[in-house]
Amino acid sequence: MDDVRIYGDFHRITPDIFEQIKDAIPVDQVEYDGDVLRIDHEGTYILMDDFIELISKRLPEEGYGHVEFIDNLEWEVTRYTITPGKIEHKKIKVDNVLDAHMRDLGM
Fold it and tell me: Best label site of 33, 35, 76, 99, fewest CB within 10 Å?
């Protein structure tokens, strides 16, 4: 089993912003279409904090992003919500992900 799975998407990433951050992307699976950056990683544990901080600093006013960091060893998910200059995160045990998601949506 892989140590971690990481899925992320960042919106309103201009080509200029992408050029500024592309060398700092810590994963190999990267898809960029001129506005949305998607990242994907399944494998060994990698540090994401520096990249998440960098992208938060570079996001334009209307930009936003999300990262799901699934730690298979600790059996928990860290959900990051990234906006310009702001990073919020919440840890949830994998067994409780659906309950937490439904609670967040008021269900």
Answer: 33
